[in-house]
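Database export, one record per block. Field names are fixed; values are copied verbatim from the stored entry.
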Amino acid sequence: MSHTETYVAGKKVFECADFSIRHDQVELENGRLSRREVIFRPFQALLLLLNGENILLRKIERPALGGACLEAPCAPILSGQSPQLAVQGLNLGKEPRSLGILRPSPAILTERVYVFAASMEQPGPDWQAVPLACWEDWVARGQIKDMRLAAALSLLALQNDLEQGAEK
């Protein structure tokens, strides 16, 4: 069964440098009115750094999670900036290739995450190498808590599978 909502009106209720929140009124298919919260965040560029058969991640302290989690480099895309230009500022490796676009939570979040991958030959000591063959297990065991990263790794795996299928 499909579900439709029609936007009626919206009012910005909070704004800061990193995001804003709007309360929307929507009309449901049965005519009832309902309220939705929409979070506006800048679009992001996420870079998967590859080193051989490993993905390179950094431990980042995330107080909302109660500690550190493994993450890939990510940066906001500034107004008027292309995703390719934003990812170049993150790139510590070779020329990045585009893997696709993620919409982490389209029901409430306007954010788009543009995912790229690049090779990094000489990682520094602050990088942790995770075998690409183990990433699904790491997600399942909660060692990768950032679902943007988990989805980006899915895009990488899918593209690798498609490339290997095309070679056969």
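Remark 1: The two ends are 40 Å apart (CA to CA).
Remark 2: The first strand starts at residue 5 and ends at 15.
End of record.
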